[in-house]
Structure formats: C-alpha cells, structure tokens
Design goal:
By secondary structure, the chain is an alpha/beta fold. It is about 40% helix and about 25% strand. The protein is elongated and about 50 Å long. The structure holds calcium ion.
Length: about 180
C-alpha cells in the first residue's frame, strides 16, 4: 500500500510519515502543493493525505486537478478546526474524508485504514443494474456491453447510485 503525505509543516510531515511507515505503508511525502500535485499525478497511490494550506499550490486546487485528471485514489484532507467552509469545499471537490488539526495519530491511522479498506472492497467487484455494468477495478462502465465515457465526478455519482440501487456483484477479484 502506497501513501502520499502532502504537508508543509515539517514536524507533522515527519510524524505522519513515520507513523504510516510503522503501520506498514510505503510512504512518499511532499512539502508543497506543486510537488504533491506532480507525485499524485504520476505515481499510483492507494491513499493521499492532503493538507489544505500549502505553499505554491493550495490543497483544494491540487485535489481539483487530480479529480479533473480522473485520479480516483482516496484523499483524506487535513484542515484547521475553524476552516469548515474549506472542508465542505474539499468534500464537494471529491475528498473522501477529512481530519481536523490537531488530531490524534491513532485516529488518523484508523481513518486511513477505513478509507483504504473501502477502496479495496470497492475495487473488488463488478456491479450490475439492468443493462448497466460498472467494473470498479478497471473503471469501465458499459451499457448493453458498449463502453461509455464518464468524467470522474459522473463515475462517482453512478457508482454511488449503483451501490444504493441494490446492484448485485457479479464478479470478485480472487486476490
Ligand atoms: Ca499547512
């Protein structure tokens, strides 16, 4: 499992990296939005921890660019207690979860595990509703067998709706 930590506070970045490494994750870190954005674009991460207040490019802009680029890895945002509007905006832009600073490392690790698990479960099935079929491992959506192209946001909405429409899982990954 590969995790990217994007955090400009050196102490916090190091604490996060070492706690995640101890928990068994392979960790990369970035100290500003530009480097973070680049890594998230080019490397396959299973999860990203993204601070919002970052030098060069702010966290919300980084998140927006990843989602626009159809990067669907879970993103957990770190935000300051009083910045609730940023949290709402972050969730609207496709963040999967958020943790308010200051936080307990144990809580953060629990959130990381939950998000990675959700993503893995999510990837392990093909959902089917009528003629509509969604393969979450490949991200392919087909209607009567013909592939259709969706934006990351449309895909997320469809995936959500299918999960809640009583779709049945037709295939499971064996690993
Ligand atoms: Ca910061």
């Amino acid at each position: 499992m590969r995790v990217l930590v994007v955090e400009d506070d050196k102490n916090l970045r190091e604490q996060l990296s070492s706690a995640l490494t101890d928990a068994g994750y392979t960790v990369d870190s970035a100290a500003d939005g530009e480097e973070g954005q680049f890594l998230g674009e080019t490397e396959p991460y299973d999860l990203v921890i993204l601070d919002l207040g970052l030098p060069k490019i702010d966290g919300l802009t980084v998140l927006k660019s990843w989602r626009k680029d159809e990067k669907t890895m879970p993103v957990l945002i770190l935000s300051a207690r009083d910045r609730w509007s940023e949290k709402v905006e972050g969730l609207d832009l496709g963040a999967n979860d958020y943790v308010t600073k200051p936080f307990h490392m144990a809580e953060l690790l629990a959130r990381v595990r939950a998000n990675v698990r959700r993503q893995t479960e999510h990837q392990s099935s093909v959902l089917e509703v009528g003629d509509l079929r969604l393969n979450s491992a490949t991200g392919q959506v087909t209607v009567e067998g013909a592939p259709i192209k969706l934006t990351a946001y449309q895909y997320k909405v469809l995936d959500y709706l299918m999960h809640h429409a009583g779709a049945h899982r037709v295939a499971h990954r064996t690993d």
